[in-house]
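Problem 12. The chain below contains 409 residues. Write out its predicted structure in token notation.
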Amino acid sequence: MLYIACVLMGWLNVYAAVYSPESQTSLFDLSTNAGKQLMWIGTTVLLIIAILVINYRFWDTFAFVIYGITILSLLLVLVAGSNVNGSRSWFKFGGFSIQPAEFAKLGTALALARYIDYPNVNLTKLKDQLWCVGIIALPALLIIASNETGSMLVFASFIIMLYREGLPGIYPLIAIVVITLFILTLIVPKLYLFVAILALGIVAIFLTPRYQRSFQNIMVIGITAFSMIAVVAGVDFFVNSVLQKHQQNRIKVLINPAADPLGAGWNVTQAKIAIGSGRLQGKGFLEGTQTKFDFVPEQSTDFIFCTIGEEHGFVGSLIVVSLFVFLLCRIVILAEKQRTRFARVYGYSLAGILFFHLMINVGMTIGLMPVIGIPLPFFSYGGSSLWSFSILLFIFLKLDSRRVGMFTR
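Solution.
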């Protein structure tokens, strides 16, 4: 029911995003994004039926085969793919396009679930950790090669599942500290951060009980402080020498939205205007002025949340976010009830992917995240997105059917 609600609301908002008062096109006009999205919804229903009919053991047995197919598709798109907005990550078939990167998340989730399901796999062991990193890194690197950075970042979401399955907490902690230092370095002068880190190191040493204040523990604190200083010192090099120009601009706009309001900051500025103008209850369905006059680019895809905020206001936005929260909670609850580790790992992978997409997509439209080209699940226009998220979700429901005794062929 949550899935159906999201898909139908997404379809209506795609229609609202492309609606023109002059032409007054129909919801079913196949020449518009709304009409094409309806076709994608129809084909998705067929995929769902196929998933429910296929034996649930298929996904476990052929997990690595599916992973291999997705890797092959990522390699092929580098050679035979079409260039869209500077990214060679699409296969074009007439008026339709397919993005292999969207399906790479599915292949990776299945491969990780299959590997972790092996009897002797223990994520506290370095060997097993490296195998998991390799499974995640291979498609991620191929996606970077196609210049699709946003899709690559989604693979970081698998750390949620890995932590649930036994990955030591030090790894997520390191990731959080590095991200925090990165953001602080862009806001606070580096000298202040250096002094703060050294002060924290000294305080940590003195707060350590005397009987634990060994040379080894002091060295650990010192190395930690030095590593944090190295991260702060390396931020400028990473931003100026590693990131591309448009990526640098997106980070600058995130830190200072007024830096380039008519250039790099245009998307975020217009997105916030659109959402803010909706106020409490919104302007009404098909009444969004920011939408009608195309102020917000990509409003039926990456910035679809702007249409929701403008036309349905805070109330509509809250309903949409609540739908996703309930869906995520439902998935996690079902994942914990699974009889097999394979199904549980896959369920948590699904939850992590959906959560990451929701956090980034909504966050970038309200200026809390940098602009990254990833869709809002079930809402954004596009067949690749709708197919991949629907397949991800219904494979999990098929796996869960074994537990409840439905569709257990």
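Discussion. The chain has a mean pLDDT of 89. Students who got a different answer should revisit the alignment rule from Section 12.3.
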